[in-house]
């Protein structure tokens, strides 16, 4: 997304609130990553040390928001400052029990709004892949994001070392 006017925001469902975790705590980010990412095989970062997590999550260039529904964590997103006045939605998703309740559209809308308000910002982007929820790409596009690039990874042949 290269212009905030492209955003097709979805309103907030009743009972949902989205709050920035202004007090940074790397253990909380690790918990959110595991809670939201487990069904989508987000496991590469779980092997990282406390020091690596702390360096990642508690730096100035990363901000975290959490969606709550009736006191329970419904999802979260992280925004990461990039070079050239860009903001990446580093992680985004819902906790498994909250998928299909209409929360994803609003949570993504908030992620995009917050990214654009993190001045200066010239572009907001996110990576997705076929391992993500089948509705992820449609949600990104429905909110006004456009596909910038696609890549196809070719798995190694059985006789190639991995």
UniProtKB/TrEMBL annotation:
A Pfam short name: Acetyltransf_1
Domain N-acetyltransferase: 16-162
SUPFAM superfamilies: Acyl-CoA N-acyltransferases (Nat)
PROSITE patterns assigned to the protein according to its UniProt record, in alphabetical order: GNAT (PS51186)
InterPro entries: Acyl_CoA_acyltransferase, GNAT_dom
Name by which UniProt lists this protein: GNAT family N-acetyltransferase
Lineage: Bacteria, Pseudomonadati, Pseudomonadota, Gammaproteobacteria, Cellvibrionales
């Amino acid at each position: 997304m290269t212009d905030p006017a492209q955003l097709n925001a979805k309103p907030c469902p009743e009972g949902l609130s989205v709050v920035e975790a202004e007090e940074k705590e790397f253990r909380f980010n690790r918990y959110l990553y595991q809670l939201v990412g487990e069904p989508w095989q987000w496991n590469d970062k779980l092997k990282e040390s406390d020091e690596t997590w702390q360096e990642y999550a508690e730096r100035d260039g990363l901000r975290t928001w959490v969606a709550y529904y009736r006191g329970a964590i419904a999802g979260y997103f992280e925004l990461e400052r990039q070079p050239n006045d860009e903001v990446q939605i580093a992680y985004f998703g819902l906790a498994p029990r909250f998928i299909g309740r209409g929360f994803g559209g609003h949570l993504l809308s908030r992620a995009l709004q917050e990214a654009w308000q993190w001045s200066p910002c010239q572009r907001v982007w996110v990576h997705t892949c076929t391992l993500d929820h089948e509705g992820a790409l449609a949600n990104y596009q429905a909110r006004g994001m456009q596909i910038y690039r696609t890549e196809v990874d070719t798995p190694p042949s059985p006789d190639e070392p991995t």
